[in-house]
Amino acid sequence: MEQPEGMGPIRFRLVHLKRATVLAVVVILIVSWYISSQPEKSPIAKTFFDTGKMEQNVADVGIHERGKAKKRMMGLRADGANFTIDGKPVRLLSGAMHYFRVVPEYWRDRMLKMKAAGLNTLETYVPWNLHEPEKYTYNFEGILDLGRYLDIAHEVGLWVILRPGPYICAEWEFGGIPGWLAYVKEHVRTTRPMFIDPVEVWFGRLLAEVVPRQYTNGGPIIAVQIENEYGGFSNSTEYMERLKKILESRGIVELLFTSDGKGALISGGIPGVLKTVNFQNNASDKLQKLKEIQPDRPMMVMEYWTGWFDHWGEDHHLYRLENFERTLIDILDAGASVNFYMFHGGTNFGFMNGANTRYKSGGRTLPTITSYDYDAPISETGDLTPKYFKIREILKQHTPPGVVPEKLPEPPTTVGKFDYGRTAVTKALPLDKVIPLLDKVARLFVMPNRPIPSGKFSGLGYGYLLYTTTVDNKPERLAVKGTIRDRALVMVNDIFVGEMDEDTNEITIDPDHSLITGDAPFTLKILVENQGRVNYGNGLKDQIKGIIGDVFINSEEKKVPEFKIYTLDMSEDFLNKLTAHSEWTSGKEMDQVKTPAFYRATFTVEGRPKDTFVHMKKGNWEKGVVIVNHNNLGRYWNVGPQETLYLPAPFLKEGENEIIVFEERTAAPEVLFCDKPSLGETVYFRE
Question: Which residues cross the membrane (predicted)?
Answer without folding.
Answer: 20-36
